[in-house]
Amino acid sequence: MINNISDKPAKLKLISPEGKEMNIPPEGALGLLALGAVGIKAWRQARKEAGEPSHWHAKSPEKDETEEEKNG
């Protein structure tokens, strides 16, 4: 049996009620959030295709003082 499943993830397409394909802006849109997981996944894909960095792995800011220094 031949496996026809591609290793590449499928490109998500959002279709409007009028039947037109909707463009997903890399900066996002409130309507994508309203779609839930599907909208978030489409937005992440649009960001990746636009070459925008993911903020998921962003380093948290360093603390200025440790708890011991504050309590002295």
Describe it for me?
The protein contains three helices and two strands; from the N terminus they run ββααα. It is mainly alpha-helical. It has a domain at 25-53. Strands 1-2 form a two-stranded antiparallel ribbon. A hairpin with a 5-residue loop joins strand 1 (14-15) and strand 2. The longest helix is centred in the middle third of the chain and has 14 residues, at 37-50. The model has no long low-confidence stretch (mean pLDDT 77).
Topology:
Elements: E1 14-15, E2 21-22, H1 30-34, H2 37-50, H3 67-71
Antiparallel strand pairs: 1-2
Largest sheet: 2 strands, antiparallel
Q: Averaged pLDDT, please?
A: 77
Distance between the termini: 71 Å
pLDDT under 50 segments (min length 5)? none
Count the strands? Answer: 2
| Proportion of residues in extended strands | 5-15%
Our count of helices gives 3
- Determine the fraction of residues in helical runs and give it as a percent range: 25-40%
Question: N-to-C SSE series?
Answer: EEHHH
Keywords:
single chain; about 70 residues
Outline:
The protein has 72 residues and is mainly alpha-helical.
